[in-house]
Amino acid sequence: MPMSVATATSDAVLRVRDLRVSFATRQGLVRAVDGLTLDVAPKEVVGIVGESGSGKSVAMYSVLGLVRDANAQITGSVEFEGREILGLSDKEMQPLRGGQIGMIFQDPMTALTPVYAVGRQIVEQIRQHTDMTKAQAKERAVELLAEVGIPDARRRVESFPHEFSGGMRQRVVIAMALSCNPRLLIADEPTTALDVTTQAQILDLMGRLRDTHGSSIVIITHDMGVIAEMADRVTVMYAGRPVESGPEVDIVRSPRHPYTWGLLGAVPRIGERSERLATIPGNVMSPLDVPVGCAFAPRCEYAMPACEARPEMRGEGHQHACWLSDEQRVAIRATPTKDAP
Amino acid sequence: MFSFIIRRLVSAFFVMFSISVMVFLIFFATPGVNPAARIAGRSASPQVLAQVSAEFGLNRPLPIRYALMMWHLFFKQDLTSYVNIGVKVIPQITGAAPVTLSLIVGAAVIWLVVGVALGVVAAANRGKWIDPLIMFGGIAAVSIPVFWLGQVVSLLIQRKFHSVFSWLPGSGFVPLTQSPWQWALHLLLPWLTLATLYAGVYARVLRAELVNAMNEDYVRTARAKGLSERRILIKHALRCSLVAVVSLFGLDLGSLVGGGALLTEVVFGLPGIGQLTYTSLLNLDLPVIMACVMYGAFFIVLASAIVDVLYAYLDPRVRVAK
Amino acid sequence: MSDDVLLRATDVVKSFNVRGGKVGSKKVATAVNGVSLEILRGETLGIVGESGCGKSTLARCLVQLLPVTSGNIEFEGTTLTGLSRRQLRPFRRQMQLVFQDPYASLNPRRTVGDIVADPLRINKFGPDAQITERVKDLFVTVGLDPSYIQRYPHEFSGGQRQRIGIARSLALNPSLVIADEPVSALDVSVQAQVLNLMADLQDELKLTYLFIAHDLGVVRHVSDRVGVMYLGQLVELADADALYDEPLHPYTDALLSAVPQLNDGTEVERERIVLAGDVPDPAQRPGGCPFHPRCAYATDECRSVDPTLVEIRPRRFVACHHPLNA
């Protein structure tokens, strides 16, 4: 059983073991998440990175029970502070949602209910999880808005969502998610819809709030740069499966999985200009066609007959799921090809 | 909000003005027709024709004629029907209006309550048996012609089940001021008949809006906040779906008050605007027709202005956009 | 890259009327506020900026999809502004657009072959058989199997759809291709494929690109020269390497520092500059330099006088009263 840095003890805030989420569709079974194992320690930032179809968002939605599709089948184990929460009913989950586990979503433009003032929406959450009176909750809402950097918070607490810009709306969403001091904050692509300078502000804010509130953060993104900036540890996902995980520094400086190589190589840097970007041949496959063996094999330059069997994650601390032996891998990375970074 | 209301009323006024001009031109300025004869009726004497010509300034320029017509219609209120000689038009309208209003308002309350309730129940139980049942009921309600339903209900009450329902009057109208109980009793069947159709429509529309709303991002956020499903449905999804219902309601109400409940009124013998329009059309009683058209148009414009204001109240984003 | 100017824009201004909140007020939102630039034949000019900076509006003005409020646009020496639609037609063939959203820019009810054939048909390229041949050739050029021409857009992935969009833009052999955020909606690995394709096509077909994007890494990778836009104005314009290595405008500096860094040893450490506030509303432009409300170095001169774009060093243009490292 693979061990990760954070835990044999249950001081892990979140422990995900072999999470699988499948959807029965007319065209067949779609395995959106196929065996995710993850640990989040207190005050730690864990990044989940992958492209579309990697299952990263669905995985975290299912942690909170937000997958509402009747055709979904969810198996595995998710423990929050030692308690199994996968499969709990809505009523049992409600105290956790927004109370102990906060979540922020990708598109700030549509995340808030358009017909209520933002203060009212924050107060609603606070009063759901605490005994505060309306007046007390409103005071807290004003404090929170000021804390996330909304100018003139006392006046703006009465404003409607459409009266804020995208960046400001995301701040409101963050304020709301942190309002009940959750132990864990899940952020699904929190800056993807924002400009790069706004993104810088939001990431900066999240970092500071992590220190003051002491929450752990799971950050889901496709942007390796955001990972590098925010995450302590990273899990790379492809086609619903984890392919590599470990400390962020290790993953970025010495990645071990061919998909991670491709992903890092494909990012155009602002520091220098490369002649050609390293590409991963082919397209992300349809979730109906995922092979029984290694999911990445059809696109992998180094595919071997062994890849017809699905590789498991191996290693201590820095793990990856690939049949290439350590020697083979070192040899590949030592020879600079014209495409590799 | 206030400036929005002002702007809306001003634009409503301009719409009414345009409608009055158009109505005027249609009735009294179509080339090749002698307007005096049309106003005076088919068998008018030359003196009457001359009098009408003078009164309405038919030899004067068009704008003057328009002004005079509006003057007669609204201020002097002495336009008379030339089919029912001497009967003034305006009092006919003001007499018929309360009947129509009573019918519409009562039916509206019923259909709103029932329609919204059914829509919410269907959406909350989406996929279970009650949902398609309500939707089917809605289609059935929409498909049944009002006049058929009215007649059949009337027949059943008065013939077949008369012994059971003898206390329910078959037709006619009793003013509210005369006897509230009789007023309500006489209107009960017409209310239910008219409400059936609209309740069906509203249940279906609301259910569709709610189902859409439940898939929106803000509902996902609300769920992630730990709110109960019921609270999410009522406070978030329903609140955001109400705008669709309000828009629909305003236009339905406006057109009904303006005389659209004609069939119900005729079937149940209620002397409202619908019935007035109907009889005046049969008799080609031009002044009455014109007055009914103006009256109907006025209410539709007013209703749509009220709806817009309500819309802006319900959805704050609209206040800025206009 | 030659010195031959393919497209020249002079003081282009584009304003839109915006309905105000009060009765009778008319606000004007100026999306493009006096932009002058030259696109040289064979180069790739990158325009980078955040939302609301006017780069997409500028692109549409350059190809005359939007009429300019004022200013001049010349293509190969001929003035385009003010020409009628018929007069513009021969020039339209020379300048083509590639759009951002591969899911919205292809008509879902038509086959992809028809979509690519459209420009050929409209311009009476030749008989149907010849058109079909050309479409198949275009598909091969962009790396798609020519037998796919009978398929519908929904049968393709985002990256493939973008290739179809590119094929469509190449149908009439344009000299200038304006790409408005062509890879923003794509995954990173697919993005790399499309960028490589565009680079290959540029060599093969001698294309000139105006490449508009908000992703600084992408823009650096493809561009020879780069222009930075803020609130409808060009604030800096220089060769790509020079701009990225040594930005002269405070906004460019903040923009570059905001990009999250990979820390894998390939990049120079940049100090993060976090800007305060938001981009202002184009309907309520601040007086003077558009950037002064957020600039750490703003002086009174900045608040009152709008700086013009000047060439303070060879091939380096900045619009700033106090450029960095000046």
Order of helices and strands of chain B: HHHHHHHHHHHHHHH
| Beta fraction of chain B | under 5%
| Average pLDDT level of chain A | 88
Rg of Cα set of chain A: 21 Å
Provide the residue-averaged pLDDT of chain B: 81
Query: What structural class do helix, strand and pairing data of chain A support?
Result: alpha/beta
Let me know the number of strands of chain A.
11
Number of helices of chain A: 11
Discrete helix count of chain B: 15
Contiguous low-pLDDT stretches of chain B (5 residues minimum) are none
Shape of chain A: globular
Helix content of chain B: over 70%
Largest interface, C-beta closer than 8 angstroms, per-chain residues: A-C, 46 and 45 residues
- Main beta-sheet annotation of chain B: none
- The strand count of chain B comes to 0
Describe what this molecule looks like in 3D.
- The complex is a heterotrimer of chains A (341), B (322) and C (326).
- Chain A is of the alpha/beta class and 341 residues long.
- Helices cover 30% and strands 21% of the residues of chain A.
- In chain A, strand 1 and strand 2 (28-40) form a beta hairpin.
- Chain A is globular.
- With 322 residues, chain B is mainly alpha-helical.
- Chain B contains 15 helices and no strands.
- In chain B, helix 5 (89-124) runs antiparallel to helix 6, helix 5 packs parallel to helix 14 and helix 7 packs across helix 9.
- Chain B starts with a helix and ends with a helix.
- The mean pLDDT of chain B is 81.
- The longest helix of chain C has 18 residues, at 188-205.
- The two termini of chain C are 28 Å apart.
- Chain C is built from 10 helices and 12 strands.
- Chain C has an 8-stranded mixed beta sheet, with helices on both faces.
- Chains in contact: A-B, A-C, B-C.
- The interface between A and C is large, with 46 and 45 residues.
